[in-house]
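Schema walk-through. Below, the input block comes first and the output block second. Nothing else is stored per chain. Lengths vary across the set, and this one has 266 residues.
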Amino acid sequence: MSEILQLLRAHYALIRVVIVSLERPPKELMTSLISMVDQEKVDLSNVTASTATISLDGSAPRRKSSVSSSTQTASSSSSYSSPSSDLPTINNIDVFELIQHLEVSSAGTITIPDFLPVSVASVLEPFLGMVGYGRLCIRPSPFCGMGVCLVNGPSTKSVPATRIFNLKKFFVDIQPFIPQLEEGKMGFFGAQKLKKVIESNTLPGGPDLYKYLTEKKRAGDTRNAIDSMQFLVVHNNMDIASVDVVRRCHCAVQTVSVGSEKKTRV
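--- output ---
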């Protein structure tokens, strides 16, 4: 993995997006499926055993009598062993393990805190329009995975953007400005507030991003910087034994684009 990652990062101009995901071997998938079936059987038997019995004459439900002696209750609970305790708990894919492996493989140049939910990329929408890339819809669900933006330039080589800019805080601070940016109605005072937000989230030693976004003479440098970015994404993969209804429902959502009707993004 170390050599592959080094090769991919060196060719950032050719390879703009790197997507990594975990896949389980067939044997592990089968073990996981069997575990799920066994667990369902255990749960069903427990529900059946604890269900109240209703008499034929329509009287109120009667539950099985419980042990009144505290001594007997304590002894029975201490000797009880859950049937599911012996079942393997491998019914999901943990992306955190892959992120840890990437940290080790990169020799610490990419660390766990550098990864953020891919939904953070949505803040790029209005700014890409400002520098001439047009209106793009970048709104992945946070359930899709984790990602890191690698910045390349004359003095930086494959440096995580989180070392230059506080993306996590900026994602929260920029939300009130998104409607104005999309409609192109910032105004003077709004632009000054936006400038303060950008400056407050720029880490020491970072570039003056506001000037790169607003000054026409820096437009070429801005485009070169954006074209030199590379994105490393850890996909939150779902296989046949780890399908999550919540995550699955977020794969296709309704989004509204300015000046257009609702469109379904898959």
